[in-house]
Amino acid sequence: MIHVATVHWRDDRWVDVQLAYLERGLDEPYRVYAFLGRMKQDHSDKFFYSSTERLKNHAAKLNLLGDMIGLAADPDDIVLFIDGDAFPVVPLAAPLRAALAEHPLVAVRRDENRGARQPHPCFCATTVGFWRQIGGDWHRGSDWKGGSRRWAKKGGNQAESDVGYRVLNKLERAAVDWQPLLRSNTTELHPLFYAVYGGLIYHHGAGFRRGLSGLVLEQHGESELTAKPLARLLDNLPKSKLTHRLHRRYHPARRLRRRLVAEQRALSESVFDDLAANPEFYRRFLEPLHLDATAPR
User: Fold this and answer.
1) CA 32 to centroid of chain Cα atoms
2) What pLDDT, on the 0 to 100 scale, is given for residue 293?
3) Within a 10 A sphere around the Cβ of 31, how many other Cβ atoms?
4) What are the residues whose beta carbons fall under 8 Å from the beta carbon of 210, sequence distance 6 or more?
5) Mean pLDDT of 44-66
6) Phi-psi bin for 2: left (phi > 0), alpha (psi -120 to 50), beta?
7) Cα–Cα dist 77/131, whole Å
8) pTM of the predicted model, to two decimals?
9) How far, in Å, CA of 104 to CA of 178, rounded?
10) Label partner for 201 (CA 20 to 30 A): which of 23, 110, 213, 230?
């Protein structure tokens, strides 16, 4: 049995899309447990279990679902944590069980995100027994081993903190050899989003929010724009309603952000329309198609 733990937030469109891909991709018995936050419609009858409790913390929701599955499922059952905007694009059960026969945990690792080293909860699979054994916890943790590029530039030694690092720390302390799934894309629309991992899993990225990643802002020169004379002038004006409007309208970095948000929203909608209509949509990102789930450590 595969037990799927997922979280949806505000956007109802992803519920039926994800469930349809899970139905195609999980070719053995499975159950889906979900947190459904601020949805416009009632989707509770579509899940084995669902909750609409107003928890804000994404990690807490995943932990609660994991605890519930751990209490009810057999130790050898698979628990699969997956974001609401992620799903398998090929039959998953056989390659997943083969990978778990060699490694106790299989998860996306987003090397493209400034060399992030941790298992990512957009897709993470293990057995119920192993998750209980390590005391799995999706709350934010610190990457003391890898350090932080952001803090290193400031001369500090504080470690990177992000979701997944508590899991990574538990795995490293126990000397567990886990299996990362890496980005398979050979065609890129975005440096972080619209990704296929291990040729098996699609993750839309920011499916439930409109924020911009720091990596994208870096690539488009936000720091250079912030150093321009006009930006420095606007940043140093006394705070008032008028200067707030001037800052919002004329600041080079703010204008860059508005443009990138609009472009990202349009691209996201275009890709969503494609994936909702065409189960083979992911092939546009994989030319030639790569279906090897393994990745070098």
Assistant:
1) 18
2) 45
3) 17
4) 261, 264, 265
5) 94
6) beta
7) 11
8) 0.86
9) 6
10) 213
Dihedral angle sign, alpha carbons of residues 46, 47, 52, 58: negative
Q: Do residues 8 and 33 touch, judged by C-beta distance below 8 A?
A: no
Q: Enter the CATH code of domain 2-211+274-285.
A: 3.90.550
Give dist(CA 11, CA 41) in Å, integer: 10
Lowest-pLDDT choice from 98-102, 122-126, 143-147, 189-193: 143-147
Q: Which residues pair with 92 in a beta bridge?
A: none
In the prediction, which pLDDT does 283 show? Answer: 95
102 burial level (CB within 10 Å; 0-12, 13-18, 19+): exposed
- Domain ranges for the chain, please list them: 2-211+274-285
Residue 146 has pLDDT above 70, yes or no: no
Side-by-side strand order, sheet with 86-88: 86-88, 201-203, 195-197
> Concatenated DSSP letters for 90-133?
S--HHHHHHHHHH-SEEEE--TTTTT--S-EEEEEEEEHHHHHH
- Are the C-beta atoms of residues 144 and 159 closer than 8 Å to each other? yes
Q: From the CB of residue 89, how many other CB atoms can be counted at a distance below 10 Å?
A: 23
For residues 241 and 85, what is the distance between their CA atoms, to the nearest angstrom?
38
Residues comprising the chain, all counted: 297
Lookup: tokens for 108:
């996306």
- Which pLDDT tens digit goes with each residue over 220-272? 777 888 888 888 888 888 888 888 888 888 788 888 878 878 888 899 999 99
DSSP 185: -
